[in-house]
Amino acid sequence: MVGSRLVPTSGILPHRALTTQTVTDDHIAELAAKPLHPLTLTDLVKYGRPPLPASALYESANFTLSILPARLAHRIQSLRNLPFIVVSNPHISKIHNNYLHSLSTLLPWSEKQITNLEDEIKFTEVMADLVQTHSNTISILARGFLEARKYISPVEVTRFLDEHLRARIGTRLIAEQHIALHFSSQPHTELSSDSKDHRHDSHGPDESHQSSYIGVIDTDLHPASIIRHCEGTVGDICELRYGVRPSVVINGEPDYTFAHIPVHLEYIITELLKNAFRATVERGMEREPIEVTIAPLPEGLSDHGREKGLTNQDQGNMNVAMSDVGKEQEAVSENIRPLKQSTPGVTIRMRDRGGGISPENLAHIWDYSFTTFKEEELISRQQSSSGGSASIDALNAISGDAGGSSLAGLGYGLPLGRAYAEYFGGGIAVQSLWGWGTDVYLSLRGVGRVECEGRRSGG
User: Fold this and answer.
1) Residue 66: which domain range?
2) In terms of pLDDT, which residue wins out, 131 or 198?
3) N or C: which end of the chain has fewer CB within 10 A?
């Protein structure tokens, strides 16, 4: 079961106007001055396997409420520290306003505890609104920085995005985790209208599909299934544009499973397959299959981290937002650490015969906004996208909520995919044989081993 389909958004919850509170500069300064809670996945799975009793849902909601406002304030502060002319760009200003909106929906809850099912349902609606509001953050930011590129250096853009996008991964994960716990539990169903439909949309009623899930975390994730799903999606769109589609061959250990977050893996695999499909077809090698090898990591290596010893600083996960007096705050990690007892990880190699990456392009594949498309074509695509035209290249729309970057457009796909991989200590490495093809090595660390003592609600 593909992870991105397990978390409903606001379209599934009852449409009800959310209570908001005006966000003042004092609110932002006070919240941004608070130290960020160092999160691990233990914090998100400590309530046990769903279905959860009402008391556990309250605990999850109150914990989520206790940490999200400060994280949103840090993002607002970080955006305000960009040059004024950059923040004035309508796209970047929209992201700033989106964060203000989400904080305004959380402030009314900040002075109270969630102690009944009706409030828990309303709070889950706030979380769904937050997820939906920020679903297109990547593509909107990309357009903004493209238009403001005369006023901010590529180094500054990379520094901001490394921090901002990784922090966004954590914020989104926190919100989606509570939404998933809510929809996979029963106590609220008697108060929810159309509850049967809600549970059906979230795969709630069939426990055989939910048994391996704790919220958005699949403790028995099957990479080969994710790869096949992404192959179908990318292949359909590739065939729509080019008239052909390469095949994908999976070898190694296709039956291997480990604990990870399916939506993260789905986004990464989608981006890698888009690149491989495009290169293969445009070189006329569509009869050569794309080879995907699944190789489990030795358990000892996975438990002690990657061989390169990636740190939060290496991954760009350190918060370096500036305070309102211009002094740099103490660096605090906004990422979520995996469980101390990790599960074995996996390395997935994707090999194509698409001709490889030219030496001059290879040096820039990790740069945000790097694209092999010509500038005039890129701007044309952006104009079509921002205008909501139905003629926008379908290949630009297949990444969904996880990213919104494109095969032939914004140039955020590969660096953002690496951010998802690195978030829990993995990574992506690229080896190109110019004139022949490309090998991409995706390493993922298992996010944790959860020892369960049975369902808390007796389900």
Assistant:
1) 3-205
2) 131
3) C
Which of 154, 181, 205 is where one domain is finished? 205
- Residue 210 belongs to a domain: no
Extract the tokens encoding 139.
Answer: 């593509």
288/412: higher pLDDT: 288
Taking a C-beta distance cutoff of 8 angstroms, is the pair 41, 83 a contact?
Answer: no
> Which is more confident, 338 or 122?
122
- Measured between alpha carbons, how far is 129 from 99 in angstroms, rounded to an integer? 12
Question: Domain tally for the chain?
Answer: 2
Secondary structure of the chain: what % helix, strand, coil (to 5)? Answer: 45, 10, 40
- For residue 361, the number of C-alpha atoms closer than 13 Å in the C-beta half-sphere is 16
Per-residue pLDDT for 456 more than 50?
no
The phi, psi pair for 443, rounded to 5°, reads -110, 130
Peptide linkage before 338 cis (omega within 30 of 0): no
Cα–Cα distance between 214 and 2 in angstroms, integer? 14
Q: Report how far apart, in Å, the C-alpha atoms of 156 and of each of 66, 99, 159 are.
A: 31, 21, 5
- Give kind and range of the element (H or E) at residue 250: strand 248-252
Element (H, E) at 442: strand 437-444
Secondary element (H or E) of residue 137: helix 137-147
Predicted structure pTM score? 0.78
